[in-house]
Amino acid sequence: MLYRALLTGIREYFARTGFKTAVIGLSGGIDSAVVAVLAAQALGPQNVLGVAMPSQYSSPHSLEDAEQMAKILGIRFEVRPIKFMYSVASRELVDGQGQLAAIAQENLQSRLRGLILMTLSNHFNSLVLTTGNKSELATGYCTLYGDMCGALAPIGDVYKTRVYELARFINKNLKNPQTGISAIPERVLTKAPSAELRPNQTDQDSLPPYDQLDGMLLEYLEKRVPVSDVIAKFGAASSEIIRKVEINEFKRRQGAPVLKVSPKAFGLGRRYPIAKTWKI
Amino acid sequence: MKIAVAQIDPVVGAFEANVKKIKEAYQRACTKQARLLLTPEMAVCGYPPHDLVERPEIFDRNENAIEELLLLTKGKGCALAVGHVSPSPFEFGRAAQNVVTILENGRRVFRQAKSLLPTYDVFDEARYFEPARSIQTWTCDGLKIATAICEDLWANDPNLGRQIYEKNPVDCFRDLKPDMLLSLSASPFEWGKRERREELHSDIARALGIPLIYVNQVGATDEILFDGPLLSIPLENLPADCLFSKIRSVFWKSAEAKYSGILPQMKAGKMNRRLKSSCFIAHF
């Protein structure tokens, strides 16, 4: 049901805004894999362009997996490395003296990718589909004008743990009976999630394990239980997560519309102030 | 009585295209000799129109659409219960109402505004609409028919957490003793809602002791998704012969995955056209 709901949302959004084609950043990770499958099925594989944009921190398997996915789905595929743009921009912005701050370095990579995707979307008269999930959007583990760029966030109301479920559902249902090849390469489901914005980075450097994180978010966002109860249930780490949810409202306010599939999605149905002082 | 239900996908602001969809369904309903055709909530202008309701043009466009539908019903045996936006008849309050009008043989024979205006989560109806000040019934072939619009039947939704409405229109329906209850809806999808919807509406039909026919739109607009469904809740002890007693949920029906060569090739999902433009018939 969730899969078909998201297909409907993508299809109608394109039909009603008069667009036929989509551009997606294909990182080789699970989020972009799921969005690519949804887009290929909703719009037709010939109408989807997957763009891999490797940097010096991208692992070789990321590019391999992205390319493999594009082949399996039959979508169009381009590789646009950001290495050169990154080295020019990061040098120019400090006049060749010293280095950009670490956070600026990380976000610059993401923003160069956003720039490439938005430019290609203009060039091909397409819409960019953002690939962020609900767990990321909630905690602000995403870059404004970077991976948040785009016209629609198809899985922005789907927690990371549900994205895995969705990927397993897809692989069960979209499998070539002759070859046994599924839509999403197995390695995409098993490797540790990583933004690959610095060497050996994983999501869990900054976030609790996703099953715990999603549990906290479900309680805080959807069930709206008091913070003290969330902390009692999930430990002190949850207060930092809730703080992140609240300080990142400014990002979500500027983000792409999120297809609502839960009782409480980001967007129209959740209106929190940005410039607030609110004790957690 | 034969009742047809148009489960269509109205597009927000697309008056002409929406009227065309309603017309198609109406023609089918006439072919099937239905006595009444039901559309989803706000089928004429699409839901939710948000601040388009504040555009002065909206009422003219709506009026033109209703005129066109009135012409359609002239000389036909099938009445049309259509959901649309309407200027408020009151001197004070919001400028618009969310209404159902019944068109029969070129005349407007019944008008009922929505009583409960959801104003939470993605809903913002109190921002635009004036609620109904009374609830009436329409008599058709000797049967007393009550009409509800979406939220009117959701006052007891357990997810609201508390009783958020002072009055429940269902109590009004009980006093009016109708023979049948209709609900025109535009009720967004979320996981777990289907079961809740079915239970809520079954409870109402059972409590009132009358059949309930419910139609929700399909499709999606911006971030909101609609999965239908149609509900027809006849009671066992009534001589109800219902052709769609089961829920029909019609999200895009994804086409079978097609495989060619070594790698699977997917074909774009096609919406089930038969369901999209069709109307369904229930006998009572």
What would your notes on this structure say?
Chain A is mainly α and 280 residues long. Chain A has one domain: HUPs (Rossmann fold), CATH 3.40.50.620. Chain A is 49% helix and 5% strand. Chain A has twelve helices and four strands. Chain A has helices at residues 2-17, 30-43, 60-73, 83-92, 102-123, 134-139, 160-173, 186-190, 210-222, 227-234, 237-247, 249-253; strands at residues 22-25, 48-52, 76-79, 127-128. Chain A has a four-stranded parallel β-sheet with strand order 3-2-1-4, with helices on both faces. In chain A, helix 3 links the parallel strand 2 (48-52) and strand 3. In chain A, helix 2 (30-43) packs across helix 7, helix 4 crosses helix 5 and helix 10 packs across helix 11 (237-247). Chain A starts with a helix and ends in a 27-residue tail after the last helix. The mean pLDDT of chain A is 95. Chain B is of the alpha/beta class. Chain B has a single domain, classed as Carbon-nitrogen hydrolase (Nitrilase/N-carbamoyl-D-aminoacid amidohydrolase, 4-Layer Sandwich), CATH 3.60.110.10. Helix content of chain B is 22%, strand content 27%. Chain B has five helices and 15 strands. In chain B, a hairpin with a 2-residue loop joins strand 10 (218-221) and strand 11. The longest helix of chain B has 17 residues, at 15-31. Chain B is globular and about 45 Å long. The model of chain B is unreliable at 235-278 (pLDDT under 50).
